[in-house]
Amino acid sequence: MKIVVCKDYEEVSRVMAEKVVRLIQEKPNLVFCLPAGNSPIGMYRYLVKMYEEGKVDFSQIRTFDMDEYVGLAPDDPHSFIYFMHKHFMDHVNINMENVDYPKADALDLDAECRRYAQAILDAGGLDIAITSIGDDGHIAFNEPDDFLLPRTHVVKMDEATRKQNAKAFADCPKGMPTHAITTGMEEHMKTKHYYVVCSGSHKAALLKKLFETEKLDPHFPVSWLRMHPNVELIIDEEAAAGIPQEVLDECR
């Protein structure tokens, strides 16, 4: 595991975008698992800027969204695919034929999960995935449990997760969904280049726990990344405050 400590969120976003661009330059048809939420917005802003400056071509990449709220149509402003269009896809030269995402309003969600998992396999697996860490230690929507599922599946979100994300649904009459579709742990663990982005002091305790946890704990899903062969943490100084200095030195 490698750790890159940046000054602040802005630098985290820039460094992460530069790493994405470098990988696309090495492999123009990169398979990219796209994250949603507040953490990657700055990265997307830099990716759009770098595209406008002619530094990157997105026309050959293939994308899969990391997760989606159950019941939301693609044109729902609260959906993650809507988020992707707003912050990224509508501003660069992505070929929409290469864009896939969980159809969370499907009548048969189990069949949709199987379709999505197979599509990832057919694409040769994920080349890059980027995630943050949920307040309960989840990655994507793989919530703490007695066991973690390997491939794309429907999950009931923990109350901690719903509380963390509730602000985004403040204007939604129906409130926040109770379930989500998420990529599974096997899909994450087989990703060739895996990144965790965190910023702010509220993430320090989670990162401290990550490096204190010696076992792979399904009740702390991010701990499984300790077994990943190529994972890199891009974090700011506040988030890194809980990591022992000897760990930072070892992982630089």
UniProtKB/TrEMBL annotation:
GO cellular component term, pick one: cytoplasm
Keywords: Carbohydrate metabolism, Hydrolase
Keyword Glycoprotein in annotation: no
Gene3D superfamilies: 3.40.50.1360
Glucosamine/galactosamine-6-phosphate isomerase domain sequence ranges: 11-226
InterPro entries assigned to the protein according to its UniProt record, in alphabetical order: Glc/Gal-6P_isomerase, Glucosamine6P_isomerase, Glucosamine6P_isomerase_CS, NagB/RpiA_transferase-like
Alphabetical list of Pfam families matching this protein: Glucosamine_iso
Keyword Hydrolase attributed: yes
Molecular function via GO: glucosamine-6-phosphate deaminase activity; identical protein binding
Alphabetized CDD domains for the sequence: GlcN6P_deaminase (cd01399)
Biological process according to GO: carbohydrate metabolic process; glucosamine catabolic process; N-acetylglucosamine catabolic process; N-acetylneuraminate catabolic process
Classification via PANTHER family: GLUCOSAMINE-6-PHOSPHATE ISOMERASE
Protein name: Glucosamine-6-phosphate deaminase
Species assigned in the record: Holdemania massiliensis
